[in-house]
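Example 3.
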Amino acid sequence: MLDLATRAHNHSYRIDPVLRSLLDTDFYKFLMLQFIWLHYREVPVTFSLINRTANVRLADMIPEADLRAQLDHARTLRFTKSELIWLAGNTFYGQSGMFRPDFLAWLASYQLPSYQLAVKDGQYELTFSGPWAEVTLWEIPAVAIVNTLRNRQGLYRLSRFELDVLYSQAKTNLWRNLLQLREAGLSGLADFGTRRRHDYLYHEWAVLATRDVLGTAFSGTSNVLLAMRHDIEAIGTNGHELPMVVATLARTPEDLRASQYEVLARWQETYGGHLLISLPDTYGTTQFLTGAPDWVADWTGLRIDSKEPVAGGEEAITWWSMRGRDPRSKLILFSDGLDTTTMIALHHHFRGRVRTGFGWGTLLTNDFRGCHPRGADDLDPISLICKVTEANGRPAVKLSDNDAKPTGPPDEIERYRAVFGRSGVTHRPVLV
Amino acid sequence: MLDLATRAHNHSYRIDPVLRSLLDTDFYKFLMLQFIWLHYREVPVTFSLINRTANVRLADMIPEADLRAQLDHARTLRFTKSELIWLAGNTFYGQSGMFRPDFLAWLASYQLPSYQLAVKDGQYELTFSGPWAEVTLWEIPAVAIVNTLRNRQGLYRLSRFELDVLYSQAKTNLWRNLLQLREAGLSGLADFGTRRRHDYLYHEWAVLATRDVLGTAFSGTSNVLLAMRHDIEAIGTNGHELPMVVATLARTPEDLRASQYEVLARWQETYGGHLLISLPDTYGTTQFLTGAPDWVADWTGLRIDSKEPVAGGEEAITWWSMRGRDPRSKLILFSDGLDTTTMIALHHHFRGRVRTGFGWGTLLTNDFRGCHPRGADDLDPISLICKVTEANGRPAVKLSDNDAKPTGPPDEIERYRAVFGRSGVTHRPVLV
């Protein structure tokens, strides 16, 4: 017996929106947005979608009309009253009033700005240009929408029975990984998997399963909507776009080197003693630490996002010790392509020497490797990012600690390398 | 093909909770609770469930174990962080900061207190005793739980096909009624149907359908959870329990007569110029208006809850005019067993002479009359209430404008009648 209304609805819906709330994004985007809104609101920027898994030809797989329908739908969303009330009233990192009333008033009329979409060589060229404060919130929805639409194409090819098997396997794997993490006594694990997730519903399942298994060892989620819906701590601080855009304002090599610390000084001024986790790898961690003013060593910790994590952690510990700080009071947050084995190894390696945290992304919310019932790779995660590529009319550049991960035009990458050097930079393959 | 996990879950759940959030109650309970918490926190009271539809033998229909399991589950609930943030941050009647931080801090550790349950003559004797500020929130969940459990017994006897027909008919009827209301140009309609609803999901459907059809003519919902979840205005002010409990503190006939105005004076002092809708029928509307101090006529309006509504409205208009106030600036809120025909008649009768509002309850959220596929009356609404029956060690009494609706022991009703008189009191059958 069928529920006729449900069946008719399921078979005739115009669109199944990937994005249903503007809170369905990473928390650090809001912290950065308020910072940008205060200090750099009108700086013109361009964000671009970049598919680092070039052999997956996204434009051949996802119909352009589907992509446009989803992007257009996202632009119809507004922050709801309840969402703004929650942003105003919730505490973040134990701190109330994190967002200023004038900023929240601005958010109340916010909508995602327009986009430019073209196709080239089987890939989508999707870009967002405009004032930084308007454009920046596109990053996560853009990546999540394209990832989800690609996954849906893979799902369309499966029968109901195969779908059942697929999800059963993915859930079984995740559950087993979570039990291993609990067994190892790992703590400080947070969900960082919004942008690369399989889709929203699987993301939600993964986060609730993690909370269920890890209990207090689960420190929270970067996803603001899930944080609100399930009373979970919202986690995040800042990302590469801040030093990348501020760097484009520099006119001399000295200014360029100094810009990576200027942005931290201003961050500290904006958020006081909270949220002091630096992200030192934008132009190379080694040069960043060597040249850092002494107050940077007073920050709570740092995030290791592109360096081999044991080496990165050791380097940070040595640096804090040399600067006369006790590493045991510091926090290292690992966030680069983590899997269970790596996290457990890092946990054992650094135990008792430094506090560790783990921002688990793709392989928490989209680990379908080996789950496809016919062995296809349709649903394996790909390395899709949306980054600032231009600011103030100049190309934006990220070098990172991994030669496989820089973004920017080759001549600009060379110019930045000449200023920042190659100290500590290696080459590691990018999985996700 | 079946989703095995869903099927196994559906067929083996231990409990399907009727109450899933402490916000799933009427908004006026929170306004009253804060008032009680400020002024009468420790006053000992007893609330009792009363089934005025005596021929429906609830204890013969609902297994006691089921009822206890639901009541026990309700006692495990706490206000979530997101719910408290919303109460703190939302505006009510355009007013921010309606709830004091110290009151919200108290709510954070609140749980529904214990209950006493016995069976007598085929009816449940369900009572709640303790400090007023703790007991009062049981009113709505107690009624909603018993009503929902009774309805489930009715639903258990239907096949899947019959269930489909049942809901199709109920929705069709509601939709037609809503179109009639829109056609008549009626406005100011609010949902007051939480306690008597069919169940939560049908309630939600009814509220969203009403918003869909009536648009801005729908003024809001008394249900706090629905208000939060769907960004709807929360509606409500105060109820009979305030004058009923305060009356038990009176020692002389003069004090007793005065107590009905004392409670209003204190309300006005607590909430300032907002929420000034009086409920004059507790001890009879006519005596209330005749004896009212002049400042009562300055209030925004009044609610007519037991008098024949045209007569009640006319009486109010005459009273405002006699007191030198312009009735066209006043609001009359009708809330007693309304149906579509009555609301449209009242709308036409009073148009241009006074502002009207309609608190639509049972017949919005539980009108299954004539929908049962085998013509049974299992799912017709019954007149179930949960009222304060004792306070300060003395019986609590409500007289109302309808001789069919008083509550209290006969000798006490007589004592109150002697003080307040019978002016304007009639006898009308109680439908819902």
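The two ends of chain A are 44 Å apart (CA to CA). The first helix of chain A runs from residue 4 to 12.
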